Amino acid sequence: MSTAQKPIPLPVTAVTCLEDRAHIERTAVLDLESGVRRLRLGPVSALAVDRTLHAELTADHPATVLDVRIVRTWTPRGPLPSPDDDSALRSHVHTLEEERLALQQRRDRLHTRLDLLGRLAADLLREIREGAGSGETDAPRWAGELDRVDSEREAHAEQLRATEARLAALDAELGSVRRAMARSEEEPAELVGHIELTVEAAAAGPVRLRLTHLTACALWRPAYRAVLDGDALTLESDAVVWQRTGEDWSDVRLTLSTARSALAGDPPRLGEDRLTLKDRTAAERRTVDVELREEEIGDLGPSPVLGLPGVDDGGETRVLAAPAPVSVPADGRAHRVPLSSFTTTATSEYACSPELSPLVTQVVRFGNLSGHALLAGPVDLVRGSGFSGRGTLDFTAPGAAVELAFGSCDDLRVVRQAEESRDTAGITQRTVVTRTVRLHLSRFSAPGEHGERVVAVRERIPVSEVSAVEVRLRKEACSPVPPEVVDAEGIARWDVALPPGGRRSVTLVYELSASAKVAGL
User: Residue 350 CB: number of other CB atoms within 10 A?
Assistant: First the structure.
């Protein structure tokens, strides 16, 4: 049983992209011989999870997978280019290395010459000492020889100092050029994985291999594009896919899932919650503490997080499939994959909540006719004038109503004024707080514009949770008419019609009445 040196290609044919990873499927047709064989397939991504490797064979004759594993190796750097194709950096490095070699040789020669001059000076001094001891004197010759040796030693020492200084500067320049060349030209070694597959076949013949595994560095998020043209709205559903697994996905069957395979399946641990009773004091029996608090009206959904949000699937795993083969390169960039598109009739409304913002927003409502659930995600908003902004689409079940805000209208504006008065009744000692809210709506229309525009104005009224505090709407003081609708959350609504260049005012008056034992209002 031997392993083939040349690996067998094992391309990616199908991908199921999860919320934070991908499930890869690879297929290949192997021409096996009878008996036990060990095959080398790949290359594959080194990020493949070993414990998720699964291989199965399909053939007309019995064939069994005995072992499958992934082997990772560092690939060496590629061969250097030929001298004719050298870059400017490589040529500069070659020139600096030649100059450095010449300077090193010159430095060695200077060191040798200085050593010889040192020995010559020592021999000359010994000759002078011996001659003076024996009574022989040749002062002019000795002085000339000493002066010549000293001058040559000084000259060669200066040349050696200049050579060493140039060598130090050359080493610094050569190191800088080599670092620049390493950053710009040399490719680092790459970690590549291969599949080692041990199979046993009863007879020779072709066998179809299917291998699956999980890999990291891949994710997807939903995205949409809404185009409003009069009463018709077109909603395009896309999937934005990122992947940096180390290998490109070319013409693969792409499936998108909201399954969270990384989450643990164990239920949360329950802790003790002790409830105790105690008697109220006399002061607590005489008074009722109340406070005004702000509550955001919302529905169930994922809690907001910083960074890239997760996929809101309504608590149930959703699976979407791309209608055509998809190619996603492993560059880590966002790639949009079309999923579905539909056109339907939409209704528009101009809505405003003056307590939150003075702007009037165009709200569009339509039904989900895509045939699948619309996951929460960003929406590119496009209307007659072109791209108008980006909104957010909440999770919507198939056939349910969808609500989208298409941005504010510059020709509509609302100004809010609020007043508050406080009074105490003499006999009952009840505290009455009267609040008056005035809303002034105006429309700035272009010349030649006709027709009224209805604006849905919403203002909130406090809702009491205790019987000691009562909230009453003074309909007789509201003008021009009381609000048409007041829901359970205390949201009052008016539908105000504004002609071109028109102005309207709406007044809302309500009372908060509390008994004498209420404190904190």
Answer: 19
Token pair, residue 185, equals: 């030209």
How would DSSP label each residue in 70-108? EEEEEEPPPPPPPGGG--HHHHHHHHHHHHHHHHHHHHH
Q: Residue 482 is encoded by which pair of tokens?
A: 């009381």
Task: Write phi, then psi, for 261 (nearest 5 degrees).
Answer: -70, -15
CA separation for the pair 66, 49 (Å, rounded): 19
Which residue carries 């791309």 as its tokens? 322
Q: Is the pLDDT of residue 214 over 70?
A: yes
CA–CA separation, 473 and 438 (whole Å): 14
In this structure, are residues 43 and 211 in contact, taking their beta carbons and an 8 Å threshold? Answer: no
Q: Taking a C-beta distance cutoff of 8 angstroms, is the pair 335, 328 a contact?
A: yes
Contact (CB, 8 A) for 42 and 12: no
Phi, psi of 39 (to 5 degrees): -115, 150
Using CA atoms, how far apart are residues 63 and 199, in angstroms rounded to an integer? 7
β-sheet bridge partners, residue 215:
22, 48
19-28 per-position pLDDT tens digit: 889 999 999 9
Question: What is this structure's pTM?
Answer: 0.68
pLDDT higher at 197 or 79: 197
How many other C-beta atoms can be found within 10 angstroms of the C-beta atom of residue 176?
Answer: 10
